Amino acid sequence: MKERIYIRLFIISVLCLSVLGCSSGGSDSASGPALSTEERADEAPLIQDQDQGIVAGLNLDENISEEALISSNGEISWIDGLEGKALFLDSDGEFLSIPDSSDLDLPGNGALSVWVYPVEHVDFAGILHKGTETDFSDEAWSLQYWTSYKPAILLHNEAGVQKQITSDAALELDRWHHLAASWGFEEADGKSWFRFYVDGIKKGELDISSFLPVKNSAGDLIIGSQLPESHSTTYGHITFRGAIDNILIYSRPLTEEEITDLYNEYSGL
User: Fold this and answer.
1) Which terminus of the chain is more solvent-facing, meaning fewer CB atoms within 10 Å of its CB: N or C?
2) What is the pLDDT of residues 205-229, one digit of tens each?
3) What is the C-alpha separation between 27 and 113, in angstroms, rounded?
């Protein structure tokens, strides 16, 4: 992997809201890898690498200060992650919230990369969700579960059209998985492509040349849930149950080789 140069941009707000019921299935396991309740002491910066095209990244290895923590539901949990720490979510309404910025607008080119460790499946659980409205009217892109707990990536444009690629199977519980999505223009054929990968394997691709640009949403980036407010008594905040680590958001497409490299970096864990 090429060396990444991380530049601090701004501090994350961490929100942990009251617990609400959320329908779920699969395992009742509440355990994750090496759970720790270690106090987080310092700031947790959002990071950027202009050379690599990373507009927002969070490795969660840095500590989070008390000043950056807003909690009405007890402590945010942290576990031993891929390297350093990872966020661990085990109750509905837990998430990290990254304020909206122009860096998070990915109208024509973009990519997402994240590692997840699911311990329980939840219908439509959010992993990386750009938008905050409970009717999803400001949703720009969303990496989340779809039906039967299959991971999916959704893009929305200003006309309200949605493009979606869904994996063919649910993620196996109690192990790390790499999820990656990429979209953008390719000079070779003059088209813009949208692709989704699970554990380094391409799960689908779409020609989105006539679909772009992706919506410019004023909503925050929600990590670990779909919504900062409860959608309903049935779904709550639609929170992922498990660990999330090494989040990278790019303003350019990733090649298949780059996605393979990102997967291989931790594929043995």
Assistant:
1) N
2) 999 999 999 999 999 899 899 988 8
3) 25
pTM of structure: 0.82
**pLDDT digit string (tens) for 151-162?**
999 999 999 999
